[in-house]
UniProtKB/TrEMBL annotation, chain A:
Name of the protein in its database record: ABC transmembrane type-1 domain-containing protein
UniProt keyword list: Cell membrane, Membrane, Transmembrane, Transmembrane helix, Transport
Localization: Cell membrane
Residues of the ABC transmembrane type-1 domain: 64-253
UniProt organism field: Candidatus Raymondbacteria bacterium RIFOXYD12_FULL_49_13
UniProt family annotation: Belongs to the binding-protein-dependent transport system permease family.
Transmembrane segments: 7-30, 63-87, 99-120, 132-153, 174-196, 232-253
From TrEMBL, chain B:
GO CC term (a single one): plasma membrane
Family: Belongs to the binding-protein-dependent transport system permease family.
Annotated localization: Cell membrane
Primary localization class, coarse: membrane
Domain ABC transmembrane type-1 span(s) in chain numbering: 74-289
Keywords: Cell membrane, Membrane, Transmembrane, Transmembrane helix, Transport
Protein species of origin: Candidatus Raymondbacteria bacterium RIFOXYD12_FULL_49_13
Gene3D superfamilies per UniProt: MetI-like
Name recorded for this polypeptide: ABC transmembrane type-1 domain-containing protein
Amino acid sequence: MINRILLYAVLSVCAAIMLTPMIWLLAAAFKGNEDLFSYLFFSPRPTLHNFHKLFESIPFMRYMVNSFFVSGIVVMLQLFFSSLGGFALAKYEFRGKKYVMLLMLITMLIPGQVLMAPLYELLFKLRLLDTYTGLVSPWAVSVFGMFLFSQSMKQIPQSLLEAGRLDGLSEFGIFWNLVLPVCRPMIGAFCLISFMGSWNNFLWPQIVLNSQEMYTLPVGLSQLTGLLSNEYGALMAGTLLAVLPVGVLFFLLQREFISGLTAGAVKG
Amino acid sequence: MSKRISRWHIFRHTSAPYLFIAPFIIMFAIFYLYPLIKSLILAFYITVGPKSKIFVGFDNFRFMFHDPDFYRAVRNTVLYALGSVFVQLPVSLGLAILLNRSKYPGRNFFRFSFFSPYMFGSVFVAVLFGVLFVPHFGLVNKLVAFFYSVDIKWLSNPKLVLPALILTALWLYAGLNMIYFLAALQSVPKELYEAARVDGANALHQFLHVTWPGIKPVAVFVIMMSTIGSFQLFELAWVMLDSSPGPDNAGLTIIMYLYQSGFVSGDLGYASAIGWVLTCGLGIISFFQMKVTGALSK
């Protein structure tokens, strides 16, 4: 009994520490300037002033649309390339397979920033700097995604594939009509992980984009810290709106998300 | 006729994997392998933006190892990484162990609340914590004031920049690593604990002889991944310190050093050299981590 009380006490303190910044953010977004620091959390006079100020200062909604567009494209590209590649690795024997696996392992140990300079030079030569194509194409393939799909597709029974072949399906038909539907939970998990990665990506858009109207949310919002250094309220309103889409997805797909994250680590 | 069809089938079957993996490999070659090799070449050049470059041999590396800013960046990054591994991971493991006990009401709520900070991207966390760490008015200092009446200047005191970053990272990543540990703990067979209890093993013995061997592969993975991740610290520090390396370069990290030389000063060659020094350093560290934990012997 005492054990149990102790357990709940420790857990509650930890949960409070984790949740407090989020609750403060929610409260701060609706507090006026004069209330921001005078009330610890919620003020009795909620206001939308911060949001007005935010929309006046930067084209916030434009950034949000940009972010949705860029992240959506990245998710679709990664899903296509990774699931197809993962299927090949999981269900076929072919020459060079070992090397592909080895290559994938090595990339996990190489920090991606080593590629930034040469990628910048490459995009310059291809005249893709300051374009969405340039922003998206280096992220079109995800080694993590291919690994995830190959792990989950290994569990699909070979008999399902054989049945498809007997029915006269082409190999791609088997992938499209039989394998993908079975992998639906993993697809959901992967989409969320990949969407979050792209939504929160900062360094690459910061390097590639020059035109302000093309900025994604992290880049746009980080500019705001300098622009409105004393308007903390507007800054908090922007942060709240920026994390909201991912937060909603996250809340709805929590279980799939966790299973996706751990699939690679625990089984592999 | 039927023979020809079956041969066609066999051909389709054997060519399929190559066709399926080709799009991935082609994109990977253009946007990963080519830049990777290119960066190895660029590391021996000085460039002015992407347009002109001069071959300088090992000068980039020579300059780097004589630049006090580089040592500052390495020192900060290493301290931050140590903070992540030795503060964050024990907390994550502790939380996971608490959650792994038999089912009790509210368990899912706790799991969700520990994990939920991870939905914030690091830029947004940086903006939020930049405000939470404001001197005097900020929430952190107000909470500190309950216990101690001091006003801590977190982000303008060079000595406190790294602790502030480590605390922020603790909040952001503790739950993520907890998820990995929790998954590993759940894969340890319950019967082993029963057996240990019958043998009279106390909690510490159970942890050392049952839990730790069971979760070790995942623990090694988590330690390696958080080390690699910590060495890539950039936007959390950069945005929290108002797009700067902080007071007295207290928040200068290796990637920040790379970003500034490559994309503020425009020397892509030097940036590549930094990238390779980081890669080699991480390679050595990962190797030692595997060696010490015995992950290589299996």
